[in-house]
Amino acid sequence: MKPRCSRRTLAGMGIILERLARKKLLVSDGAWGTMLQSAGLTGGAVPEEWNASHPQAVRSVAAAYDVVGCDIVLSNTFGGSRCKLEKSGLGNRVVELNEKGARLSLEGAPHAVIAASIGPTGEFCEPLGDMTTEQMEAIFSEQIGAIYAAGVKAVCIETMSALDEACCAIRAAKKLNVANDVICTMTFGATPTGPRTMMGVTVEQAAIELREAGADIVGANCGNGIAEMIGIAALFKKFTSVPILIHANAGMPHLVDGKTVFKQSPADMAKRVKELAAAGARIIGGC
Fold this sequence. Notes:
Shape: globular
CATH architecture: Alpha-Beta Barrel
Number of strands: 11
Helix content: 40-55%
Number of domains: 1
Radius of gyration: 18 Å
Distance between the termini: 36 Å
Order of helices and strands: HHEHHHEHHEEHEHEHEHEEEHHE
Strand content: 15-25%
């Protein structure tokens, strides 16, 4: 028989880790981009700007996931770093757009835990790029600070390919509030030597180094359908004891009449959930 967690143990956990102590599996939400596109977001628009100009549409995405019972819902803040927003002339609105995105998910999904989405900056740390790790960490601190100020108690750092950038984001989140849950996932592709990120990071490296940087939950998102994620989850389980999150695509993307289409149905994905959980995933959702 497994020992029960004491009240003291649970009190010291973040909100997601506490739920995982009580439930074997948590269900996360699915894609945000396609949901916003169906609401009218065009290819050239900045999704995070919709937090100000189309709040009801953004809130409705969170509400849709809340209604169907998701334990965890993300936010429309994936590209909310200063580096990303400056490319669209919105660099002076980092705090505003991230705070609003976080609040809209909190309002739309009151029954779920909100884990605000934090995506890559699009920049590289030295020596590949011009940014120092201190500068990179500061970029994430600005974004995550605005999200925490809105009342969110967890962040999901996702779609990462470089370990140094991912670790900067983790450290920034933990320095701002050590008690909050920090999830970090990387995107892996198939190679002759096993799954690796675009920057060559292996699952073993990710599992070990993301945890050492302070991540409470690690895993993978994007780039793969649920079938491919089963092996990735098993590798993570081999190299870490922390909970594993998997956000799979609905199959691999196909270009149809100039539009990106994912052909895997909800039923197709649902058939593989038991296998994914058996491989080690504790939080399962879509991307």
